[in-house]
């Protein structure tokens, strides 16, 4: 049963990785999401492969390298946090951060090959839960990084422009859900003899979906947020997201929301005045059609200003 769930999780993560990259801007930020998801899928694959009765040396190797894919989560998450509000002008995190993560990754990866980082050990030909000496240190590195990023996001919710604040709400929700849910499966439940670590990736997958929507579909957070036109003929899921974003903006920053509404109203008023002038000129100088025809044409143009 557990093996089937692990395989299902692997398939789910693999499909998510494909979706994240295919329906995105295909830049480094999108690639980091796809890579993070793919590494989690590899982690699930290693959990499954380590259950297969390969020769002892092969099975021991697979068990030892199980923690390596998830060790890359902090460095990828750090890159995401530094760039989630700048999809068109990506930057690298400070060299100090990169150096720290690279050294830590190399450290844990080296000792993972020696079998002292992973949660499992091979005993009498069976894979059993027996955390290595560095297992909880690796968990601390991962979760301290996750919650440090969550703290940065929490700070950004209360400062910056509405674009930053809206993005931060989505990402903070995703990071906290992913961090808390995965911590329960990785750290808490094993203390009671319950081993469901593969379920932890589902919590992180929640973070990935919460993050992917605002970053890849950033138009929903700036351009379309300020466009109050209504598309009655082609309902879209994105319209619901835009409505939620407007509600959040009105709650967090009523002044900024009022400015968006005022800008839209002024823009439409100017466009309507221009259409009125155009209609008057056509009625006065036009040779084709009567007044009713021009009024009907004008009414249609005005409707198009508010309806897609």
TrEMBL record:
Keyword Transport: no
Annotated Histidine kinase N-terminal 7TM region domain residues: 6-223
Pfam family, any one: HisKA_7TM
Record-linked InterPro entries: HisKA_7TM
Alphabetized UniProt keyword annotations: Membrane, Transmembrane, Transmembrane helix
Ranges that cross the membrane: 6-23, 28-49, 61-84, 96-113, 133-157, 169-192, 198-215
Protein name as annotated: Histidine kinase N-terminal 7TM region domain-containing protein
């Amino acid at each position: 049963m557990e093996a089937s769930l692990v395989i299902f999780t692997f398939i789910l993560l693999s499909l998510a990785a494909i979706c994240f990259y295919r329906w995105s801007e295909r830049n480094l930020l999108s690639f980091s999401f796809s890579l993070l998801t793919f590494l989690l899928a590899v982690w699930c694959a290693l959990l499954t492969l380590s259950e297969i009765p390969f020769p002892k040396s092969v099975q021991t190797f697979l068990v030892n390298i199980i923690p390596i894919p998830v060790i890359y989560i902090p460095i990828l998450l750090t890159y995401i946090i530094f760039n989630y509000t700048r999809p068109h002008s990506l930057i690298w995190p400070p060299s100090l951060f990169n150096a720290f993560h690279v050294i830590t990754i190399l450290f844990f990866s080296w000792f993972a090959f020696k079998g002292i980082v992973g949660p499992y050990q091979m005993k009498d030909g069976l894979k059993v839960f027996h955390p290595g000496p560095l297992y909880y240190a690796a968990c601390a590195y991962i979760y301290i990084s996750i919650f440090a990023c969550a703290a940065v996001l929490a700070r950004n919710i209360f400062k910056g422009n509405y674009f930053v604040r809206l993005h931060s709400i989505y990402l903070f929700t995703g990071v906290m859900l992913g961090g808390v849910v995965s911590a329960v499966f990785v750290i808490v439940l094993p203390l009671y003899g319950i081993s469901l670590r593969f379920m932890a990736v589902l919590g992180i997958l929640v973070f990935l979906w919460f993050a992917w929507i605002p970053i890849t579909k950033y138009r929903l957070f700036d351009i379309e947020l300020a466009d109050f036109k209504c598309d009655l003929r082609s309902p879209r899921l994105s319209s619901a997201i835009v409505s939620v974003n407007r509600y959040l903006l009105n709650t967090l920053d009523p002044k900024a929301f009022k400015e968006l509404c005022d800008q839209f109203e002024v823009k439409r008023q100017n466009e309507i005045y221009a259409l009125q002038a155009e209609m008057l000129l056509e009625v006065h100088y036009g040779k084709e059609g009567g007044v009713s025809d021009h009024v009907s044409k004008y009414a249609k143009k005005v409707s198009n200003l508010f309806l897609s």
